[in-house]
Amino acid sequence: MARNDGVDGLAEVQRLAVLEDFVCAAERCEDTCCRGWSMVVDDPTASLYRHEAPELEEALDHTAVGTVMRRDCTSDTCVKLTAGLCGIQKQYGTAFVNDSCHFYPRITRRLGAELHMSAFLSCPSIARLALFGERPFVHSGHRVERLPNKVRDILPEGLTPKEGASVIEGFLALAGDPTSSPERAMVRIACVAQSLQHQPPARWAEATPFLIDSVEDRLATAEADAADPHRLLLALAALAHAAQHPSGERFQETFRTMEKALAVRLEPSSFALMRLPGPVGPDDAYPRLRELWQDAAPRMAPVLHRWLQAEIDSSAFPHAGLGSNPAERATILGIRFATVRLALMSHVADDGTPPDPDTIVRVVQSLARLLDHLAEPELSLSIYREAGWHREARLRGLLDDAPGWAGDALGPRRQFLPPSPAVPVSTISTA
Ligand code: SF4
Q1: For residue 422, pLDDT beyond 60
Q2: Are β-strands 60-63 and 264-267 bridged in parallel, bridged antiparallel, or unpaired?
Q3: Pairing with 369, which of 182, 240, 315, 343 sits 20 to 30 Å away (CA)?
Q4: Does the Cβ of 25 fall within 6 Å of ligand 1?
Q5: Residue 130: pLDDT band by 50, 70, 90 thresholds?
């Protein structure tokens, strides 16, 4: 089966260095990619089954979103998964494995004539390599035998492939800048993306270095709101609910730890946050987390810098990703960053010890499994706009990126009701 467009049967791809060390953990994987997910089957693979292996058609489901691999109702994995390995690959060979299964966790995009391959943090093995590996976030040329049947061209009009790549590289450098905190790096990224929005795409390669150099002069003053951490938790719950996210054990553990750290519990039927009984109430929970974070933050900074770089690379920011323009994409990236940061803060021990690498991987990967695979930006953006987080000043406040932050600078505290009986303190619409 012809699976690439190279003249000699091989295609040249600019591949992310992190992928050089990637090996699928197969039966040792903590969160197998086809558990709870329906792997989409591309038309050429469905046609191959029809003509050359009709018995495999029994493993397909034809749904409203297209043809997918059927899931086993007991294990909730693909019916062809056997002992952690793909039964189709084993019995029929790689050519019979559909593009989604063959390429995951890799994502391939086209910048004009150039092909770029990156990777998703929703795979635990990639999350481990991306967050703790030595490889930088750079791409280099590799010859590959197979390409996905559909590869989206994301090059903005008026840019050459080299210029398009240089814009992404500018944002990657901003994200990884070790002289700034990761929070400031995120705010700078949002500010530069907002400014790019006012330029025609053909000028982005020329404008990006200047906008990065001068970004500090244009940052908005932070506007914090004491309700933000609880709103972030509700926004996460709303997105998981709307996406019908299967919420496996790893996601639930991450979410429950966030609830406990913020001294609340989500009531699923009413979508309200209830105060948890305990010595620390919801009003005091985040200021306490912030104090603990002061010790943990220097050790967590490299992880958050690498998270930002991984997300920029996998979404080819600002050219692609969820959202229709750089400003919307920066908003979504910024709130995801805030969510991951809050989740990591929630896992800091009472003595200020940061989470260990396996816990960090579980937090990042379980959130990426939901957030990196939302198909539509509208719900995310409507929640974020309602909270005001689309404005740079509010995003900066959300990320505590203000000099001399103190609890009393947060403005009026929201009122939480007593712990017993449990009562709703906040709701969010998922309509
Ligand atoms: S999630 Fe990653 S490591 Fe796990 S089975 Fe899928 S590709 Fe392999």
Answers
A1: no
A2: unpaired
A3: 182
A4: yes
A5: very high
Q: Residue 411 and residue 59: Cα distance in Å, rounded?
A: 56
Distance CA 357, CA 369 (A): 18
Least Cα distance to 15 among 281, 269, 314 occurs for 314
Helix (H, G, I), strand (E, B) or coil at 384: helix
Mean pLDDT computed over every residue of the chain:
89
User: Which of 21, 31, 250 is the pocket-test mutation for ligand 1 (most atoms within 8 Å of CB)?
Assistant: 31
Rounded distance between C-alpha atoms, residue 226 and residue 49, angstroms: 56
Residue nearest to atom 6 of ligand 1 (CA): 33
- Closest protein CA for atom 8 of ligand 1: 24
Nearest CA to ligand 1 atom 7: 24
Closest CA to 184 of 196, 193, 194, 174: 174
Q: First vs last Cα of the chain: how many Å apart?
A: 45
Q: How many CB atoms lie within 10 A of CB 349?
A: 10
How far is 83 from 179, CA to CA, in rounded Å? 46
Domain extent listing, the chain = 11-151, 228-427
* Length, in residues, of the chain: 431
CB 162 within 8 A of CB 50: no
The pLDDT of residue 355:
98
- Range with the poorest average pLDDT among 6-10, 118-122, 234-238: 6-10
User: Which of 266, 255, 187, 241 lies closest to 374 in space, CA to CA?
Assistant: 241
Residues 36-54 pLDDT 10s: 888 999 999 999 999 999 9
Residue 123, ligand 1, Cβ within 6 A:
yes
Residue type at position 379 = L
Residue 55 near residue 150 (C-beta atoms within 8 A): no
pTM comes to 0.90
Q: What integer pLDDT is reported at residue 1 of this predicted model?
A: 41
How large is the greatest C-alpha to C-alpha distance in the chain, in angstroms? 71
332, 203 in Cβ contact below 8 A? Answer: no
